[in-house]
Amino acid sequence: MIPGMEPLPLPLEGITVVAVEQAVAAPFATRQLADLGARVIKVERIDGGDFARGYDSAAGGLASHFVWCNRGKESIALDLKDPRGVDVVRRLIAGADVFVQNLAHGAAARLGLDAATLCAAHPRLVAVDISGYGPSGPYAGKRAYDMLVQCEAGLVSVTGTPGQPVKAGIPAADIAAAMYAFSGVLAALVRRGVSGRGGPVEVSMLDALAEWMGHPLHHAMHGGTPPARTGLAHAVIAPYDAYPTADGGRVLLSVQNDREWRRLAEQVIGRPELGTDPDFATNAARVENRERTDALVGEALGGLGADEAVVLLERAGVACARLRDVQQLAEHPQLAARERWREVGSPVGPLRALLPPITLPGGGEAPMGDVPALGEHTEALLRAVGMADVEIAALCRDGVVA
């Protein structure tokens, strides 16, 4: 809180989101909305729900993807092949501010749940269609899993070593689409506040990741060649790589200009003459002599422990980082010092989770609600849209809801 000021409400308090979503792209987008205070109603299949629930069981018996992307939501399980299931979704949408879907190409339109149809019926609604390749064009109907889109967008071609392209270790295409869907919703809500109208939002995974490829794309289009794959090294800066230390760790350092190189040469390598040696004095020279440059740095750091190397590099004013694994991230001292960890409820008990990266001083903390069980809120939501006990019983009996 800011001293002397009344606490601000969460920005999306009072906003209701309905999402027919699965996997990562749409669920990660709507989780951001939930973190900002929105009520998010997640529509899932009756036969297992969001298929991301079955990816693994690493999070105490739950799927790690699902735990990551779905806290703070209400789950209703519906059979959308039955018109009565679609009718429930329409009733939920009638009281909503935002609708998000990432069904297979054409599926939402067949159900009448595409953005254009819904916005025509509900002018204040913000309706988001997330797709793999967009609503038209020769790739519109193509299956679009994250790794496939990473390949189509060229990300794999610039990631890896000279001899081996590799995919990103996180679902980069899904995350890119999710964050543009998230920001698209926020922009459309601002526009609605001015004009009174919501409107459709379209986001494709390919468009989103192609935007993130801006540097190598412009390098290739205007410079003639794409940046080379260089592992942890930088294609056009040297030294910029991870170097082994005496205790088995690895420390990455980045020399951004020739002044920093001179400090590195004097205070870390212990050879100040390298600062003016024509083979190393400029970045262009160091890139041309990359192997010799890396050998000099590697020899200097190879006799130090990782902590010792970091201290020495920071004292010299050279940017550096420990090369941490995922478990070390979970124990990162900076996250601990800033109290970024919380616990969220789930069907298997409390689970650790990070606070969202958007911090809004002066307001309440992100609610970070529970990870829902499949259909946990079905009955309550059916009652909320006005269904009587007899109707609910019939839907349960016929397998339309779960």
Q: Mind describing the biggest β-sheet?
A: 6 strands, parallel
Which structural class best describes the helix and strand composition? alpha/beta
Q: Enumerate the spans where pLDDT stays under 50 for 5 or more consecutive residues.
A: none
Instruction: Report the count of strand segments.
Output: 13
Structural key phrases:
402 residues, alpha/beta, 39% helix, 13 strands, elongated, 6-stranded parallel β-sheet, 3-stranded antiparallel β-sheet
Please give a structural write-up.
- It contains 17 helices and 13 strands.
- It has 402 residues and is an alpha/beta fold.
- Helix 2 links the parallel strand 2 and strand 3.
- Helix 1 packs across helix 2, helix 1 crosses helix 7 and helix 7 crosses helix 8.
- It is elongated.
- 35% of the residues are buried.
Break the fold down into its secondary structure elements and pairings.
Layout: E1 16-20, H1 25-35, E2 39-44, H2 64-70, E3 73-77, H3 83-94, E4 98-101, H4 107-111, H5 115-121, E5 126-131, H6 146-152, E6 160-161, E7 164-165, H7 172-195, E8 199-204, H8 205-212, H9 214-223, E9 240-244, E10 250-254, H10 258-269, H11 283-288, H12 290-302, H13 306-315, E11 319-322, H14 326-330, H15 333-337, E12 341-344, E13 351-354, H16 378-384, H17 389-397
Parallel strand pairs: 1-2, 1-4, 2-3, 4-5, 5-8
Antiparallel strand pairs: 6-7, 9-10, 10-11, 12-13
Helix pairs in contact: 1-2, 1-7, 7-8
